[in-house]
From TrEMBL:
The chain crosses the membrane at residues 76-94, 103-122, 134-154, 175-194, 210-233, 240-263, 275-293, 300-319. InterPro entries: K/Na/Ca-exchanger, NaCa_Exmemb, NCX_ion-bd_dom_sf. Pfam families: Na_Ca_ex. It is a multi-pass membrane protein. This is Sodium-calcium exchanger. The keyword Transmembrane applies. One of its GO terms (biological process) is intracellular calcium ion homeostasis. It is found in: Membrane. Residues 3-149, 175-317 form the Sodium/calcium exchanger membrane region domain. GO terms for cellular component: plasma membrane.
Length: 320
């Protein structure tokens, strides 16, 4: 039964995210919002709504380890596995702006989460907790990130006119139906997914943090994985970097920001090892782009990233 809830919830989440993205993108295009803005905001939001749904649902149900583990695990999966797999299909060229600004910003976001989550280390507290104050602070960072995104969009609004053709203009009634249906799918799918994942963890005697860092994180990252692999097959592998960075920033600033703002998230199973791997994965990606192969993630480097993820997962299983 738990497996059926898990699979059924994941299917509803993916369908809901797709429907919400299509409906919102169509309405945005109808109001002549530049396609670059749609891509950087609505589409990015759409691919990260599974993480948002699962984390918020977990927070409301008191499963803090799944809520935090989902974000930390998703970011590690995005950086190591998705970029690695995409690089195997086609080498990924990184732009100078991404290398100098966006990847360092992603690393900084991971460091900020590391600091917020280490009350015992820095404040000598009794437990590590993402408080409501931490959540509101992360949301403030998200607003700054949105401002940066719209600044980029205003500078590039005329450069990507061909992208507009990729967004279908649906009738208004169908767009509204997609949005409402997508939201319903996300809400009910999130509830089923969390119940299934928690049940499996209890039955197998595995901690919710391990389930959150692996099974839940991989499942909710499927939209990003699909987007990146399809981009590689269409000879646009550089999209993978933007997809991963945007998703990682959204996960930390907005997903965890919303979850912690609703209720404090006490960290019992998520360790500094997990947080350090998240920070290190971003630094590794930045170093590969900065020092090797002229701002290109090669197939060899992609293989190294995948091996790093396999090693991390193996350590989690061994430590369990």
């Amino acid at each position: 039964m738990n497996i059926l809830l898990l699979i059924g919830g994941l299917v509803l989440i993916l369908l809901g995210a797709n429907g919400l993205t299509d409906g919102a993108s169509s309405i945005a295009k109808r109001f002549n919002i530049p396609s670059i803005v749609i891509g950087l905001t609505i589409v990015a939001f759409g691919t990260s709504t599974p993480e948002l749904t699962v984390s918020v649902s977990s927070a409301l149900k008191g499963s803090a380890d799944i809520s935090i583990g989902n974000v930390v695990g998703s970011n590690i999966f995005n950086t190591l596995m998705i970029v690695g797999c995409t690089a195997l299909f086609a080498p990924i060229v990184i732009t100078r702006n991404t290398l100098r600004k966006e990847i360092p910003l992603c690393v900084l976001a991971s460091v900020a989460l590391f600091i917020c989550a280490n009350d015992m280390l820095f404040d000598k507290a009794d437990a590590n907790t993402l408080s409501i104050t931490d959540g509101l602070l992360l949301l403030c960072f998200f607003v700054i990130f949105l401002g940066y995104t719209f600044a980029i969009a205003s500078n590039k609004s005329g450069e990507n006119s061909e992208e507009t053709e990729e967004i279908k203009t649906l009738p208004v009634w169908k767009s509204v139906l997609y949005i409402v249906g997508g939201l319903c799918g996300l809400i009910f799918g999130g509830q089923w997914f969390v119940e299934g994942a928690s049940g499996i963890a209890r039955n197998l005697g595995v901690s919710e943090s391990i389930i959150g860092l692996t099974l839940v994180a991989g499942g909710t990252s499927l939209p990003e994985l699909a987007t990146s692999v399809v981009a590689a097959l269409k000879k646009n592998p550089e999209i993978a970097i933007g997809n991963v960075i945007g998703s990682n920033l959204f996960n930390i600033f907005f997903v965890l920001g919303c979850s912690a703002s609703i209720t404090p998230l006490r960290m019992s199973g998520i360790t500094n090892f997990d947080l350090a791997v998240m920070v290190a994965s971003g630094i590794l990606l930045w170093l590969f782009g900065l020092f090797f192969a002229k701002r290109t993630i090669t197939r060899i480097e992609g293989s190294i990233l995948i091996l790093c993820y396999i090693a991390y997962t193996s350590v989690l299983i061994y430590m369990a």
